[in-house]
Amino acid sequence: MRFAECHEDRKHLAGGLCKPCYDTRRRSDPIKRAKDAANDRVSQKRRWRERKEGTCKPDRFAECHDTRAHYAKGLCVVCYRQWQRLNPSVIKKEQEHGRRQRARAKAKPGFGRKVKDAGLRHRYGLTIEHYDALSSAQNGLCAICEKAHELVVDHNHETGAIRGLLCSQCNKGLGHFGDSAKTIENAARYLTKGINE
Fold this sequence. Notes:
- By secondary structure, the protein is mostly helical.
- About 55% of the residues lie in helices and about 5% in strands.
- A two-stranded antiparallel ribbon has the order 1-2.
């Protein structure tokens, strides 16, 4: 495995950078950001059109109809739905098996912490230890309302830089204000004006 030049403990993605650094660089360049958005829209529209017209080339074809895409159990979507209606007991048994497996996984100690760690690493390139350090630096309180809630990571959407930990209400509030300090100052002025009168 190749490691990134920016962070030697992270996997290389492109240009010698790890995923968070690469994404940050892409977001900071307005031309690349516009190209990425245009390419996503074009490819998404193409995929929708191909699915609608039935011209997409699947990775695997169904065994029941060699012109249709594989869906599950070697069948196309239509045949699989029909198989489900004819075999409800098998479907119920498979669903119960899946529920038992998920329950066993959740019962293992540290399961929630592992899931949270994976989410933080994927979204922000942040370890659970770094999150815990940020939380203890804030005494487990939201940086804005200073109340003890479940804390979420607040980051700058332009640069990707982590600003701190907030409760979900305050984080959503910043989002609704468009992360604009001027708008928040206007809102504070508006609230105090109403109190003074």
